[in-house]
Amino acid sequence: MDQMPLLALIFQSIPESIIILTLGLTLMGIELKWQRIIPAAVLSSLCAYYVRELPIPYGVHTLIGIIAVAVLVLIFFKTSIPVAICVAMIGIVIVATVEMLLCPLLLFFTGKTITEIWESKTLRILLAIPELIVLALMTFWCIRKKFSLRSPHFYRSNRTKDRESD
């Protein structure tokens, strides 16, 4: 059970949710609509805030978070269930990867333990900044290059394949 400080919700969780949604939507080739991304991200962060308060085993909150993000994508972006799940899974996998790469470096440079960082509101927020910057740069690059995992080259219909073989 983790008690996230309100300041961490505002300065860490909400920006991270905005970036996660934006990156996941971009990689799934869904048009970005900020008037939908912002409220969905705020609701996602609020869900995470309250789920972390529950006395459930560690890791279950991540599963609940994936489901919550997928449901929010379904509601706000009117996607199919598989696409919504992909958006949520892409986001969590990328965040987890960036955290696994940056966390040892941050611990090394600060000389602090993860427990010390999480117990300090200031450190918890400040040490999230490098992660947010890396995620934001990745997202910006994907948007700028129009990079998507749903490229037409990978998802051609059978009709197109049939016409090419004629």
Question: TL;DR of this structure?
Answer:
The chain has 166 residues and is mostly helical.
Largest sheet: none
Segments where pLDDT lies below 50 for 5+ residues? 153-166
Number of strands: 0
Number of domains: 1
What is the number of helices? 8
- The first-to-last residue Cα distance is 61 Å
Described by the principal axes of the CA atoms, the overall outline is: globular
Strand content: under 5%
How helical, in percent, are the residues? over 70%
How much is the average pLDDT? 88
Based on CA atoms alone, the radius of gyration comes out at: 18 Å
- Tell me the structural class: mainly alpha
Output the helix-strand order: HHHHHHHH
SSE order and pairing:
Blueprint: H1 6-27, H2 34-51, H3 60-77, H4 81-110, H5 114-119, H6 121-126, H7 129-144, H8 158-165
Helix pairs in contact: 1-2, 1-4, 1-7, 2-3, 3-4, 4-7
Describe this structure in words.
With 166 residues, this protein is mainly α. The chain has one domain. Helices cover 75% and strands 0% of the residues. The protein starts with 5 loop residues before the first helix and ends with a helix.
Features:
166 residues; mainly alpha; globular; 8 helices; disordered C terminus; 0% strand; single chain
